[in-house]
Design brief:
The protein is an all-beta fold and 103 residues long. It has a single domain, classed as Rieske Iron-sulfur Protein, CATH 2.102.10. The protein is built from no helices and nine strands. The radius of gyration is 13 Å and the shape is globular. The termini are close together.
């Protein structure tokens, strides 16, 4: 079952290039993408660097620490699937963003 969790107003999120948000005890990185928004786990699985601080190139975020790339649409890592991060659907409702969580 999917439930939608409020992330706050778009104008209040600090996209640099991603915005870190804490959702139910976990850190998520939210990114603008293709006219909408997407989200992945914020911690790089290699050394826990915050992915929200990486560089966005062609729909991927590049981890600032060791240059691993993560697909913003799927969470897939270029080094191998064992390093993938979780991807989350994001929707905009009026001026707020909501994140889908599966129960």
């Amino acid at each position: 079952m999917t439930r939608w969790v409020d992330l706050g107003r778009v104008a209040d999120l600090r996209f640099q290039p991603g915005a870190p948000v804490k959702v139910e005890g976990r850190w998520i990185a939210v990114f603008p993408l293709d006219g909408g928004y997407t989200a992945i786990d914020n911690a790089c699985p290699h050394a826990s660097a915050p992915l929200c601080d990486g560089t966005v190139l062609d729909g991927h975020v590049v981890c600032a620490l060791h240059l691993w790339q993560f697909d913003l649409r799927t969470g897939a890592c270029d080094v191998g699937e064992v390093w993938n991060v979780r991807h989350y659907e994001v929707r905009q409702v009026d001026d707020r963003l909501e994140l889908a969580l599966e129960d």
